[in-house]
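pinging the channel bc i need a second pair of eyes. not urgent but kinda urgent?? the chain im working w is below, pasted from the shared doc
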Amino acid sequence: MPREGEITEADIAGAERLMGLAYTARERVQMVGNLDGQIGSAVARRGLELDNSVPTALRFDPRLPGFEMPRDEGCIVPLPEVPVPEAEADIAFATLPQLAGWIGSGALTSRRLTEIYLARIERLNPHLFCFVTVMTDSALSEADAMDALIAAGHWLGPLHGIPYGLKDLFDTKGTVTGWGAEPYRDRVPEGDARIVTLLREAGAVLLGKTALGALAYSDTWYGGRCRNPWNTEEGSGGSSAGSASATAAGLCAFSIGTETLGSIVSPSQRCGTTGLRPTFGRVSRAGAMALCWSLDKVGPICRGVDDTALVLDAINGADPADRCSIAAPFAYDAEAPIEGLRLGYLPEAFGEGATEIDRAALEAARGLGVEVVEVSLPELPYGSLMNALYAEAAAAFEHITLSGLDDTLSWQDDGAWPNTFRKARFLSAVDHVQLDRLRYLVMQALDGLFGEVDALIGPYMTGPMLVASNFTGHPCLHLRAGFDSLGTRGMSSLGKGKMTAAQPDASGPVHRVPQGISLWGRLFEEGTILSLGRALEARLGVAAERPELPA
């Protein structure tokens, strides 16, 4: 008769089923007597509560042996000389180059632009739930300071006086940064995230904190569900939900999002924004909530391709406070020719399941003067990498699982974080190491692909690319490609290996909603996909259309 708390052979047999293993009876007998030390070590470590800010000792580096960092540097985007519109909505939806030209020349003040956006937030946020905190007083103060610099003849650059929204997982000194989650809704940081400092130095004006799905998953946070401006009956996608919704609705000039697996491209697909997920390591994550240390990336969400380039130029740079930070130059010339570039596509991405918008985008790309070629990827279990994400995320928020605080989160479905974190406790450490080795094979696979082509085009859920490119750290640009009439869409679950994928729902009313197309590029060569994206944006001609919003 086993003593109370004693591990038995039956316990081991049950654990085998959880782990997908099968040992013999003799092996269980041998194991049963010496598991106590292993378990004791694990329990002892759990007694040390690790703050979310504590990084991992191991660091992910997307560069394979032999990688050579590009040397070109400089962001060149022309600022058009056009008059300031009379209608405030036309000003609100203007591109960053237009706004920069107006503010730099004194034709528009930062104060007026900030007041326009604040008024739109006051009117529309009750419908969209996209802003968690509106920082009215500080925003107006920052705008006045930027106007004073212009009056004194000092222009800080294209983001001078430009108001933006910041995903509420970046620390802002003295202002709640609640990570969208009930256990942290009263969390007030003592300092600013690095990206806040960089944007302040560039002259940008912080309007407030935009909503994110709790702990960077989905579009549901403790204040409700962030809405898609094109169809307020559905969510705006996750997890940079508020950033995409606010930008699409003209509540800010641009916004900042993060992506672990789709959290920039998914809400950009849903809300029709232009999202740029930079190469892993390019932008500092210091002062940001960690979900997955080896996967998290920071990037801009805008209304046009050139806009994303201007923002990336301001936030690019190595930071010793981020252990995965990589020093890399950023180069983009908006007027650089693209003729001669090789653009690849996976044929299965445009076969069954592809939309007419997807195929039209590919045809538009063929008309850009680039060589469009079929490519392929080796057969690998790409989806298995998701278990590595689950393990990192569960480790980042171990405290709420072990303490029971996970029960306070609003979203408790099977695919939501609480259940996923619990299940992750049964992932094997040995399998985790093997997943890291698989990741290296995937890095080699994508490196081989981009040895054949300069960029890849496809729907954002193209084959294995959403998972593969996030785990390899390759950059992705997602831009609006057209519009479709669809029923209200729902969210796929983590259990299906998708964190943020919006799937059509045949039931319910039909809405005209945007759809996009993705461009993937080589490590630290965002300029190439930006140049292709700019040309494609112009050819498709759908970037300027606005959603119909409540009066």
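so Confidence is low (pLDDT under 50) at residues 490-498, 500-505. and The first helix runs from residue 9 to 19. — does that match what u expected or am i reading it wrong
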